[in-house]
Known about the structure:
Layout: H1 26-35, H2 57-61, E1 65-70, H3 76-84, E2 88-93, H4 97-110, E3 115-118, H5 122-128, E4 134-140, H6 158-167, E5 168-178, H7 181-193, E6 196-198, H8 204-207, H9 217-224, E7 230-236
Parallel strand pairs: 1-2, 1-4, 2-3, 4-5
Antiparallel strand pairs: 5-7, 6-7
Amino acid sequence: MSEDTHPTGAPWRNFYGRFKGKTLRDRQYKLLDEDLDALSPGPVGWEENPDRVPLDLPAMFGARDVWLEIGFGAGEHMVHQAQENPDVGIIGCEPFLNGVAMALGKIRKAGLENIRIHPGDVRNLFDVLPQASVARAFLLYPDPWPKKRHHRRRFVTPEHLEPLAQVLKPGAIFRVATDIPDYVRQTLEEVPRAGFDWLAEGPEDWRQPWSDWISTRYEQKALREGRVPHYLTFRKR
């Protein structure tokens, strides 16, 4: 992470993904206007929180454990977990506005109150999450950045893993799903270096999905195209 900063004090952080795709429908704009502010975890951005005051998770979720989904796509897995675990509070982070709009529709339809949404870079969220406050984290089918020169853009690099480790509780679970073999390689190299133990004891532990897994649209596309999912489970030391 660069030490250079914006005039506001925010660090210069290159972001290489997309913030918006095809034109949103009127209904999706309405969801963003009506629901997103109410589901905000609090002041995350540098303009509204320049002193990086930590988020008040007990005020947000009470005594519930807090889980974090990094890049929730269209929200299928996040909503499923929130429905199955009403005693857990889930913060989802997704910079792609089209995905945020789709997730808001699912959240409204399900009537969920245990989800909060940050529509931006997860690194800004790491800045304001209290240390050792998150009990579980998910990284599901992240952008693979397949070209070798782009591997440093992947999430499984120290720039992302070190702050993730700081906000996770000791013993917290970190799940990674990917259909890209080289992403598996880099994950197994970098995640243990950041303070995690890989929990696999045999091949079935990464070949079979978790018992509470719901297959997403992205995974179904990968399967149709012949790519093999890998399900990796780590524990924070």
